Please model this.
Amino acid sequence: MDEQRIRERIRARLAAGQLRPNDGTFVVARTHSGPPCAACGRRIETADAAPYGHHYLDGEHHWFHFRCMLLWADERIQIVRIEEAGHGR
Ligand SMILES: [Zn+2]
Model:
């Protein structure tokens, strides 16, 4: 899956509320297999060097491939900036 498709999927999931642009608390690494990547939907293999988990304040969490986490971070910060610009007037 190429970067553009992953970004489109992340935007769709953000729009649907399946991923959230903010409210996160911290990011941790995982070393065992688990749920699929919240961005691209593919399995996170044990061989993937650094899968990352994002925990929300309400306890829910998502796991990402390292590359997908970077794309998600990039997409969500744009939404946060738009929201901040809207509230700043
Ligand atoms: Zn992924």
Summary: The radius of gyration is 13 Å. The pocket of zinc ion is lined by residues 37, 39-40, 42, 64-65, 68 (CB under 6 Å). Residues 3-87 form one domain. The chain has two helices and three strands.
